[in-house]
Design goal:
The chain is of the alpha/beta class. It has two domains: 205 residues, Rossmann fold (3-Layer(aba) Sandwich); 216 residues, Glycogen Phosphorylase B (Rossmann fold, 3-Layer(aba) Sandwich). 40% of the residues lie in helices and 17% in strands. The chain is built from 17 helices and 16 strands. The strands form three sheets. A seven-stranded parallel sheet has the order 3-2-1-4-8-9-10, sandwiched between helices. Strands 13-12-11-14-15-16 form a six-stranded parallel sheet, with helices on both faces. The protein has a three-stranded antiparallel sheet with strand order 6-5-7, with no helix packed on it. α3 crosses α4 and α9 crosses α15. The radius of gyration is 24 Å and the shape is globular. The relative contact order is 0.10.
């Protein structure tokens, strides 16, 4: 068996798909990957650096189309699996000519191939001869509340390309229901994400010396042991909406200093000033990094907001934190939110597709703008986030119960559970 993964950037493969590539190699499969960017990929036999770009309007994608066509012409793949919007588009369009079947009992000896849609051929007398084309939608760009431009650009393309898709994999319930109703893929699957290694994140919090590890990590970051720590993990871009948390912290600071709202008092925290005891740790990098730092400084929050950039110790950082905050505007099924749940953290998240598949409101955390699907309402207000943060900061027992609930729920999203479902799909080609 020979398989090709296609995605926009190399980082996507390294971040989400290494366990799958490892499994392919364990089966004796030959693994190829086509992405934009250099860099090594584990368990990959051959890596192609193609010109694929995230923007559908980039001329680089036209070049990537011809590059991928050349690869497919040279290499005969049993499976092509596309990821990310542009990776999925190119994989399916270039892979279309290779989706053929052949009569298994060919007495004529001609070996002529036939189209899979030929109704004159009994399916029992045919076997798959060509390439199986798979696409994982890591969250359609068109969704409830999405901008009209997203529907105009992405929906028609996905609709057309679904006809040339053997297996369309969706990772949240909203996309699955939509795909079943509107898409023309041969098979449409719901798989709960790419999977998360729950043991990796839960093990730290369950260790006998977990509190010591927590204390050491806080010392490393100059965070007081008595502080309440909020944490977010994700790329620093507009979609992740980190600025809303900074605005909340500024609002709470103003409330305390001006005594306009006596919701907090000093018994709730362990210092003379509420804001001095509330820290916000942001893990990740991206185009908005400098503007977010400037916003924190303008709001006089630079002492309590820590920008860590990309980290390899996310499990330890989650363990030393108290609340995970995830105010994204759009998600498929967020891995960082799953990792926080596995770590036993209560979660404050936006009430959007993907997040609602994971967080049960008032059980595993608080969904802000509950019952509202309007993205603009999520991005333009800090009111519900302020209420949510205040509610969890002041109630340790609630934090603990929500964290315990999340650790139970997340088990059905574990990498071993997801891998078994994906293996069944891959093995259909045999």
């Amino acid at each position: 068996m020979k398989i090709l993964f296609v995605a926009t950037v190399t980082e996507h493969i390294n971040a989400f798909h290494i366990p799958y590539l490892k499994w392919f190699k364990e089966q004796g499969w030959e693994v190829h990957v086509a992405t934009h960017g250099d860099g090594d990929i584990l368990y990959c036999d051959k890596k192609y650096n193609i010109s694929i770009q995230r923007s559908p309007f980039s001329f680089g994608n036209l070049k990537a189309y011809f590059e991928l066509k050349s690869i497919l012409k040279e290499e005969k793949f049993d499976i092509i699996h596309g990821h990310t919007p542009m990776g999925g588009m190119l994989a399916r369009w270039c892979g279309k000519p290779y989706r053929k079947r052949q009569i298994s009992d060919d007495t004529s000896g001609t070996g002529d191939t036939i189209d899979t849609n030929d109704t004159n051929i009994d399916s029992d007398t045919t076997r798959q001869f060509g390439t199986r084309v798979i696409y994982t939608a890591h969250g359609f760009h068109f969704y409830k509340g999405a901008p009209l431009i997203n529907w105009l650009i992405y929906y028609p393309v996905e609709k057309v390309l679904s006809k040339y898709t053997d297996d369309l994999i969706t990772i949240n319930h909203e996309d699955f229901a939509f795909a079943k109703k509107k898409m023309n893929a041969k098979n449409i699957h719901y798989v709960p994400g790419v999977g998360v290694d729950t043991k990796k994140f839960s093990a730290i919090s369950s260790e006998a010396h977990a509190e010591i590890l927590k204390s050491e990590k806080r010392k490393e970051l100059n965070i007081p042991e008595s502080a309440i720590v909020l944490i977010s993990v994700g790329e620093l871009n507009k979609n992740k909406n980190h600025n809303v948390v900074l605005e909340v912290l500024a609002q709470l600071k103003s409330e305390y200093n001006n005594h306009e709202n006596n919701t907090f008092n000093k018994s709730h925290v362990h210092s003379d000033s509420y804001v001095d005891n509330l820290y916000y740790v942001i893990c990740g990098s991206g185009p908005l990094q400098e503007s977010l730092k400037s916003l924190a400084e303008s709001l006089q929050l630079q002492t309590n907001v820590i920008f860590l950039g990309q980290r390899t110790d996310v499990a330890e950082l989650l363990n030393m934190s108290d609340i995970f905050v995830f105010p994204s505007l759009r998600e498929g099924l967020p891995v960082s939110l799953m990792e926080a749940m596995a770590s036993g953290l209560p979660c404050i998240a936006s009430n959007i597709r993907g997040n609602v598949d994971l967080i049960e409101h008032e059980k595993g955390g608080l969904l802000c703008n509950a019952g509202k699907a309007n993205v603009a309402s999520i991005s333009n207000t800090t009111l519900e986030y302020t209420k949510a943060i205040r509610a969890l900061v002041t109630n340790e027992s609630l934090r603990n119960s929500m964290g315990e609930h999340n650790q139970k729920v997340i088990q059905k999203f574990d990498i071993e559970v997801v891998m078994k479902q994906m293996q069944k799909i891959y093995l259909q080609v045999r």
